[in-house]
Design brief:
With 341 residues, this protein is α/β, with parallel strands linked by helices. It has one domain: Ribokinase (UDP-N-acetylmuramoyl-L-alanine:D-glutamate ligase), CATH 3.40.1190. The chain is built from ten helices and 13 strands. Helix 2 crosses helix 8 (284-298).
Length: 341
């Protein structure tokens, strides 16, 4: 990070940034989205099977963590927020595991609705290792349905959102394309005063939301052209704001950091805080959304919120698999960042 103006602004804003972190615990957020369970099964490779040319693993561990929109929910809870969640889970072990994980984290699961026709979205990553060697993923098994939820379930989701919207400081729409965010559900979510959208496609379905957080490929897909330089980046920001009628557009760009666009201001660049210790970006976007949302509900400026979202992501990408961070970790990371500028 070499931009002198950014360094100066960060120094000037340090006390405010620490102050917003202290207020994360006051945040009240509703997450609407495609809930999933990420499952990590690991074992040691013993030999090749005699039945087929495949590896035989001796099972060592199975770890279950929230995935999809559930990862955004869990990130918010680990940052101290009071979180409500609405979405669909199947009448199965994965759905019960996800509800248990949420309950243990103090998350309000009243809005989690059982869909008896569809399984809980579950992604099982099977990994193996030889003795004294690194563990590597071998295969991923996905359990999900492409059938849309019944209309009655969509109405039930929308009703819960309508009953809850006034009691939270923000609504996060976490759209992984698994069917929860139907037109009826989106309409209900957009009644919130502050709506943050993290969607992989069809951003115009959320027209009028407060803030969108597409990554670079999602932004390119939305505008229909490649973003290869500063000129096309600025054009994309303007086009996305027009397309969505949003107040703010935050394009996350990996090792290039983030670019924040508003209706009445020039694009603001936030450089990447961690370019070297990147082990796994799985779920990092959910972490950005969680920290960004809590900063905005606390009263931070969009720039301050983007900085804190970026800071949170710089921590979780150092860890393998879907992970979270905490306010204390963020405070330490911010202190380290200020020391090394």
């Amino acid at each position: 990070m070499h931009d002198p103006s950014f360094r100066e602004q960060l120094y000037r804003s340090a006390d405010r940034l620490f102050g917003w972190l202290d207020r994360f615990g006051d945040g009240q957020v509703l997450v609407v989205g495609d809930l999933a369970l990420d499952e990590f099964l690991t074992g040691e490779v013993e030999r090749l099977s005699r039945e087929a040319p495949v590896l035989i693993l001796r099972h060592e561990e199975t770890r279950q963590v929230p995935g999809g929109a559930a990862n955004a929910v869990y990130n918010l809870a680990k940052l101290g927020a009071k979180v409500k969640v609405t979405g669909l889970v199947g009448d199965d072990d994965s759905g019960r595991s996800l509800r248990r994980i949420f309950t243990e984290a103090g998350i309000d699961t009243t809005g989690m609705i059982i869909d008896g026709d569809r399984p809980t979205v579950t992604k099982t990553r099977i990994s193996g290792h030889a003795r004294q060697s690194v563990t590597q993923q071998i295969v991923r098994v996905d359990r999900k349905s492409d059938a849309p939820p019944r209309s009655s379930l969509q109405q039930e989701l929308a009703a819960y959102i309508g009953d809850t919207a006034a009691s939270v400081g923000a609504i996060v729409c976490s759209d992984y394309g698994d069917g929860v965010l139907s037109a009826k559900v989106i309409e209900a979510a957009l009644t919130g005063d502050r709506v943050i959208v993290d969607a992989q496609k069809d951003l115009d379905r959320y027209r009028g939301a407060t803030l969108f957080t597409p990554n670079l490929p999602e932004a390119e897909a939305a505008v229909g052209y490649s973003i290869g330089d500063e000129a096309t980046l600025r054009q994309a920001g303007r086009d996305l704001l027009a397309k969505t009628a949003a107040e703010l557009m935050l394009i996350t760009r990996g090792e290039e950091g983030m670019s924040l666009f508003g209706r009445s201001s020039e694009a603001i660049a936030v450089p990447a805080f961690n370019r070297t210790d990147v082990f796994d970006v799985t779920g990092a976007g959910d972490t950005v959304v969680a920290a960004l949302t809590l900063a905005l509900t606390a009263g931070a400026t969009p720039w301050e919120a983007a900085v804190l979202g970026n800071l949170a992501a710089s921590i979780v990408v150092r860890q393998f698999g879907t992970s979270t961070t905490s306010v204390e970790e963020m405070k330490q990371a911010l202190a380290n960042l200020l020391e090394t500028l």
